[in-house]
Amino acid sequence: MLFTRQDLSALSLTVTIGLTMSPLATRLAHAQLTPTAPPTSVAPKAAAPAPLPPPISISEQRFRELSTYIKGRGVVDESTRRDLATLALALDVDISAPTSTLEMVQRLCPARAQVAIWLGDDAAMDAAFTRMQSVMPASDAVALAWTRELITSGQFDRASTLLQSRTFAPERLIDVKIAYALALLGLHRFNEAQAAFNEAPAAGRSTAQQSLISNGSIRLNTLKTMWLRELSAIAQDQSRGDIPLVELVTSKGSVLIELFEDHAPNTVGNFIEHVEAGTYAGTKFHRRLRGFGVQGGDPATAAGDAGGRSTGGWTVPDELDRVDRRAPLVGRLVMVKQPAAEAPDSPRLNSAGCQFMFLLTPSEQLDGQYTVFGQVRDGWEVARALGNDDEILSARVVEKRAHDYKGVRLTEEKQGDFSMPRLPGAAAARASETRFDPATAPKLVTPTLGANGKQEISVPITPPASAPKKP
């Protein structure tokens, strides 16, 4: 949780932006990176939150209504997205109005940041946090909240710089060290990350904080093993000098992708075949998923097929059991798959088609489940910022080797239920999914919100047992 409810009372804030890291069942791989010992004492439970004060404006009241609706429903559908976009404009007007008091700005800026997170608007989120820091410069809670959002959106350098740029109160040092270690993980600075975990004060850790430290150390060793394995593959790519390249020109700018033909030849062949056939030109990215990325290849506008298209016309075999398979690290591209019928939370074998996604953070839980077939060579800031309705204006092969590129086709399956991978620890439901109705135009089902899913608002209002009526 980014702001605690105690922080809300102290800062006169009315919202909480949440992010939960969950355990990963992975053994320690490197004994030289020794996790810190469990704490000798556990912090007492926090007191019950104080009731919310009356809304300070119509926009704050509307924010509370939509927050309750989203929590009760569990999704942000397209209608709600439009309502959130309207609310964002109203909040911007109230925050910037000459008549706005300091209290109004302090209360409305966190709401604006949360709306931006729901909409996947990094620029608006940054602007809201910047404004919060200007009106609450001494707030450690604001700095930590911003840092965690930067980490979940792949901005590890900015996160580490922000943490190092200020002196935090002693009671914040546990959270600060955890956040700093997670930022360093994204930068492959593993020894420094473990040192940060170990430096987190042992006294006063909560159960959640101890879990973050313990599981962070486990993640660290797993990622270090993957990274060391990657170094030889990276050297091999550089020595060849003929790595296939594809340029995606998007509505936010250009992204140059290099493809791992030596390690996923069939997936690369399939991808280039789709690029050259025009499959991706004019398509949109489905939603931004914090912690994973964006999914491309919208079947509603894919060329050459009428209705119900979700695979590009066929599925291709996985390339998961190769000893030299590439790791699911930051900036990598993986193929999106359909869920298994017998285990909806797991991907079905050999069910990838044309859809792909960028990884915003290290995603070791995908290793051996999803085929990693490329990475961003240039334009990472563009790729990282892509979100809902951003469009691929054109796609072209910049460089390839002197042979035909066609993937092995398994089936002529044209539609199905494709899903993004689950966020770590999300046992109850997939983090998000894209369902396609073959009888009509494809229908988008937006991400499920929850403790282990997309960031959610935390307000001391009990969500209804069933989905509430739309306010």
Question: Mind explaining what this structure looks like?
Answer:
- The chain is α+β, with helices and mostly antiparallel strands.
- It has 2 domains: 5-226, Serine Threonine Protein Phosphatase 5, Tetratricopeptide repeat; 241-435, Cyclophilin-like (Cyclophilin, Beta Barrel), CATH 2.40.100.
- 37% of the residues lie in helices and 11% in strands.
- It is built from 12 helices and 11 strands.
- A hairpin with a 3-residue loop joins strand 4 (286-289) and strand 5.
- Helix 4 (102-119) runs antiparallel to helix 5, helix 6 (140-152) runs antiparallel to helix 7 (156-164) and helix 9 (190-199) runs antiparallel to helix 10 (207-240).
- It is globular.
- It starts with a helix and ends in a 36-residue tail after the last strand.
- Residues 1-39, 298-309 and 422-467 have low confidence and may be disordered.
